[in-house]
Specification:
The structure holds two protein chains of two kinds.
Chain A lengths: L4 H5 L9 E3 L4 E4 L2 E4 L4 E5 L1 H11 L2 E2 H10 L4 H13 L4 E3 L2 H16 L9 E4 L2 H28 L5 H31 L6 E5 L2 E6 L4 H28 L3 H16 L6 H18 L1
Antiparallel strand pairs in A: 1-5, 1-6, 2-3, 3-4, 7-8, 8-9
Helix pairs in contact in A: 2-3, 6-7, 7-8, 7-9, 8-9, 8-10
Chain B lengths: L5 E2 L7 E4 L2 H23 L4 E7 L4 E6 L1
Antiparallel strand pairs in B: 3-4
Classes of the chains: A alpha+beta, B alpha+beta.
């Protein structure tokens, strides 16, 4: 089978001194990598298993590169493997603080050359605390962008500083809160089937992954998350309107709309929902 | 052509529910930032008084001091 471009694109920036390892959710069994909580087995080429064993015991990227050369694994194959592990949240990385600044420099340099890296994945058992942390990690760029726009608008005198600070704080809090509710509802619905979901965050992408559910439960879980998120936002908007704060009401309505848009059939919740519907339909036809 | 080290991992078994609103929110914030930048370009630094969307004429209005 040829190399998968999508997996290669998920390869994060690695410095030779980075320490990397497989999280406890994963085990190596023969020539396969098992995702224990999700009950998924990924078959590997025997030459890749040596790398997985090294990752299992914690290793540096330098050692992994050396091992890849010994196993006659090319750079592209290694990037695909590392990208795949990152894509499923099977890669933990520890970087020395002195190297963090160097990594920013390397990233900027490569960006100018047209090479983009996917951030390292963050995968944890889905609890209220980890979900909240996942939401904060995922929206950190949005929060930064809101603060930057608000600061420029305030200093340019587009509106009173108190008004800009108030609406920005309201939007950030409501967005983070509604996303937390959105994800927790997914988790709760999946948990009812004694399933242990995981929170997976990669850059701006935040999701809940779990074992396969019945099509009915899958559809319910997919639709309940966006519904709960939009209800929280709409409720906040209605409360704002009731105290004669139309701008805050509009912000609530916009955030509610953003949750509803995640039900479009091409991506995330919407894709899961329509896939579950198709599966249910095919089961009924049998 | 080089071959993959991973033999068709059954990724379809993963049931991922992703929150799309984050990307939409970022796009919205960038659009707002664009409007702020436009107001500053049109009216100058500390020059813009107010801006908004005129739904009737379908255009963004920037009123300068």
């Amino acid at each position: 089978m040829s190399l998968d471009e999508r997996r290669m694109r998920h390869c994060p920036l690695m410095l030779e001194s980075d320490v990397i390892w497989l999280p406890k959710d994963f085990a190596i069994s023969g020539v396969a990598l098992q995702d224990i909580p999700l009950g998924v087995t990924h078959r590997m080429r025997p030459s890749a298993v040596a790398l997985l064993f090294a990752l299992h015991d914690k290793t540096t990227y330098r050692t992994l590169l050396r091992l890849a050369r010994v196993q006659k694994i090319s750079d592209s194959q290694l990037h695909e493997l590392v990208g795949f592990l990152n894509m499923i949240g099977a890669l933990e990385r520890q970087r020395m603080s002195a190297d963090s600044l160097r990594a920013v420099g390397v990233r900027m340099h490569h960006m100018l050359l047209g090479v983009w890296y996917t951030p390292i994945a963050w995968r944890r058992p889905a609890t209220p605390l980890t979900t909240a942390l996942g939401v904060l990690r995922a929206i950190s760029i949005v929060v930064g962008a809101v603060c930057a726009v608000a600061a420029v608008a305030a200093f340019a005198g587009l509106a009173p500083i108190a008004q800009i600070a108030g609406i920005s704080l309201f939007c950030i809090t409501l967005f983070a809160g509604s996303l937390f509710v959105h994800e927790m509802v997914h988790v709760r619905v999946a948990r009812r089937r004694y399933i242990r979901p995981r929170i997976l965050q990669i850059g701006l992408r935040l999701g809940v992954i779990h074992r396969k559910l019945t099509p009915r439960r899958e559809a319910l879980s997919s639709i309940c998350g966006p519904f709960a998120g939009s209800m929280v936002s709409a409720a906040a908007g209605i409360i704002a309107l009731s105290v004669h704060a139309p701008l805050y009401g509009l912000a609530g309505a916009l955030i509610a709309l953003m949750h509803c848009l995640s039900l479009t059939p091409w991506y995330g919740d919407g894709a899961s929902f329509y896939k579950a519907l198709r599966e249910r339909k095919s089961l009924c036809n049998k | 052509m080089q071959s993959s080290l991973i033999q068709t991992g059954p990724l379809s078994e993963y049931s991922a529910k992703e929150a799309g609103p984050i990307i939409i929110a970022l796009a919205f914030v960038i659009a707002m930032g664009g409007m702020v930048a436009a107001a500053i370009i049109v009216c100058g630094w500390r020059g813009a008084k107010s801006m908004g969307i005129n739904w009737v004429h379908k255009k963004i209005e920037i009123v300068c001091r």
